[in-house]
Amino acid sequence: MSSEPSVRLIVDGMPGLISTATAAGTTESVNQQLLEYFGKTLEALSSWAVSDTIHPEDRPQSMAAWRQSLETGYPYDVEHRLCDANRTYRWFHVHGLPARDAEGRIIRWNLLLTDIEDRKQAEEKLRRNETDLMEGRRLARELQHERDRLRLLLDLNNRVASDLDLRQVFQAISSEIRRIFNCDFVGLARPDSTDKQMRQHMIDFPESKGLMKEGSLYPIEGSLSGAVFLSAKPLVLNSLAEGNSIWSSDPAFYRRVTEEGPFQSGCFLPLISGKPSFGCSSANQSRRAFFCRARC
Using CA atoms, how far apart are residues 214 and 259, in angstroms rounded to an integer? Predict the structure, then answer.
């Protein structure tokens, strides 16, 4: 009997948070450190299953694990967030073991609560770093893919600018452009002999629907290919509707292309040989924002 106060002194002197519960799971006693940490009385802590002591998101899992331990006698082992006296939640690991009598019946549960907030934060930081690393690798692969696409178009531009036979070059490379860019239309436009209009020199587009034809003429001023030809700068439209302000030569035709036609996005590149450029190559896609990550 005289050992009971000594045991209480020892338990209260331990740095951890300690509690005991009856065989039925009712909180029986707690040490002084636990009372001070939670800022609650023993009676208030006895209602932990329905109070805010455990974070609401963690409570169902913790309660289920506690019921299973009481029914089976298996150790209680959970991680959940607990609310301290300052109304701040911190992560704790709670480990409970049953105490048995000489006949093996459970007479009490002894529980140790260990603060693992620092460990949880370190794990979360590591998870974010791993996620950032994976995202960085993914973006690097996409960037390399986009560079390969642009390199292919620039190769076409250089070969055209070297006065090679346009149709021969176009036929040799257009299918490769369509495969790598996963695009539906590849075309070349060059200024007409009058230098006032752009002529759709060649088209690789099996499903033209009659909208785009080789030999079609567009004014240099007021067309997408004309704008790229004059500026010698690439133009990327995640949605072709973004080009309404540029295409002023035939608004009705442009509405047919963007609203009724097969194209939703496009990438237009100048055939470089000076300013203005030698012409304009284009790759269009039937899906909107296909070129949203292009680096051209």
Answer: 21
The domain locations on the chain are: 3-115, 122-285
Looking at domain 3-115, does it have CATH number 1.10.10.10? no
Whether the CB-CB separation of 281 and 269 falls below 8 Å is answered with yes
CATH dotted code for 122-285: 3.30.450.40
CB 31 within 8 A of CB 11: yes
Residue 271 and residue 276: Cα distance in Å, rounded? 9
Each residue's pLDDT tens digit, 262-275: 677 888 888 765 56
Tokens at 210, concatenated: 């009659």
Within this chain, domains 3-115 and 122-285 share the same CATH topology:
yes
Cα–Cα distances in angstroms (integers) from residue 56 to residues 82, 94, 212, in the given order: 10, 16, 62
Burial of 222 (0-12, 13-18, 19+ CB in 10 A): middle
| Residues 142, 125 contacting (CB under 8 angstroms) | no
Alpha-carbon Rg of the chain, whole angstroms?
Answer: 36
Helix (H, G, I), strand (E, B) or coil at 224: helix
Distance CA 69, CA 77 (A): 9
CA distances from 5 to 1, 10, 109, 264 (A): 8, 9, 19, 81
Q: What is the H or E stretch that residue 146 is in?
A: helix 117-161
At 67-87, the pLDDT tens digits run 999 999 999 999 999 999 999
